[in-house]
Amino acid sequence: MAIDSDAEQIFRENYAQELRKKKQSELEDERKKVNQQGMKTPGRRGEAIKHEEIDKEIVRRYKLGQKKLS
């Protein structure tokens, strides 16, 4: 994982907040959209950040679900 510039860090934080507001089905749709965009323009830093943040959000939700079951 590369060190983020200030602009990338702001983008990452804003995108993470946006993802937290989405329902699970919307999150899955967002992943599909990012994957499609990544195929069209591979190697873009924005798509890499989006993939990382979607993965983090999925893990966060999974952990919250596990805590509720305990």
Features:
mainly alpha, 3 helices
How would you sum up this structure, described in words?
Residues 22-52 are annotated as: Disordered. Residues 24-33 have a biased composition (Basic and acidic residues). The longest helix has 25 residues, at 45-69. The chain is globular, with a radius of gyration of 13 Å. The protein is built from three helices and no strands. The protein has one domain (8-69). α1 (6-21) crosses α3 and α2 (24-40) runs antiparallel to α3 (45-69). The relative contact order is 0.14. The chain is an all-alpha fold and 70 residues long. It has helices at residues 6-21, 24-40, 45-69. The chain is 83% helix and 0% strand.
First and last CA, distance = 33 Å
Structure summary, number of beta strands: 0
Count of spatially separate domains: 1
Sheet with most strands: none
Structural class: mainly alpha
How large is the radius of gyration?
13 Å
* Low-pLDDT segments, ≥5 res: none
Q: Total number of helical segments?
A: 3
Average residue-wise pLDDT:
92
* Residues in β-strands, percent: under 5%
What gross morphology would you assign?
Answer: globular
> Considering DSSP H and I runs of 4 or more, what fraction of the residues is helical?
over 70%
What's the helix-strand series?
A: HHH
Region (Disordered): 22-52
Biased composition (Basic and acidic residues): 24-33
